[in-house]
Amino acid sequence: MTTARRSAALRAWLIAGTLDIAYAAVLSVATGGSIGGMLRGVASGPFPGASGWGAGGAIAGLGVHYAIMAAMVAAWFAAVRRWPPLGAWPWWITGTLYGLFLYLVMNAIVLPLRFGSPFPPDDLAKAAALLVPHIIFVGWPIAWFARNKETR
User: Fold this and answer.
1) From first to last of its 152 residues, what are the pLDDT tens digits of the chain?
2) Strand, helix or coil at 145?
3) DSSP class of residue 52?
4) Could you tell me which of 14, 87, 71, 131 has the C-alpha nearest to residue 22?
5) For residue 58, which of 18, 93, 131, 150 sits 20 to 30 Å off, Cα-Cα?
């Protein structure tokens, strides 16, 4: 991996990860939850007892979130490297498609298998409230940073 590619991937990871978790925090508070509770919920994916870990569970949740985001960024950068037209197409198109794909993987496969969450959800407005930010805050930044010839 070139220095430019590594730097772009690192920026994509930090920006998409931070935008996504910030949105999740705002949404949690706006719906009557807490940021710590949301983060412990994230940690409870791989660590079922994390919901009772207090601040340690919240820190673990933040780590789990950024680890998942690192995998999302690495997968996209690898895809762009293997199929260069992905990096040549408009970033907002590929970012929208990748954000949608990631949303579907998380909400149609991962969450139902781990937590038994229904898919599609009963409340389609709530689903859209989660899908659109996932595209804008995750898919778009990742695709934008992977678009340059130096990062392919």
Assistant:
1) 688 889 999 999 999 999 999 999 999 999 999 999 999 999 999 999 999 999 999 999 999 999 999 999 999 999 999 998 888 899 999 999 999 999 999 999 999 998 998 888 888 888 888 899 999 999 999 999 998 755 55
2) helix
3) G
4) 14
5) 131
Q: Please name which of 111, 99, 110, 104 lies closest in space to residue 138, comparing C-alpha atoms.
A: 99
**Alpha-carbon span 97 to 81, nearest angstrom:** 17
Helices (H) and strands (E) in the chain, counts: 8, 0
Beta carbons of 127 and 1 less than 8 angstroms apart? no
Distance of alpha carbon 27 from the chain centroid:
15
Q: What gap in Å lies between CA 109 and CA 102, rounded to an integer?
A: 10
CA nearest 92: which of 132, 138, 152, 140?
140
* Structural domain span for residue 68: 3-151
Q: How many domains does the chain have?
A: 1
CB atoms within 10 A of CB 114: 12
- Crossing angle for the helix pair 3-30 and 35-43, nearest 10 degrees? 120
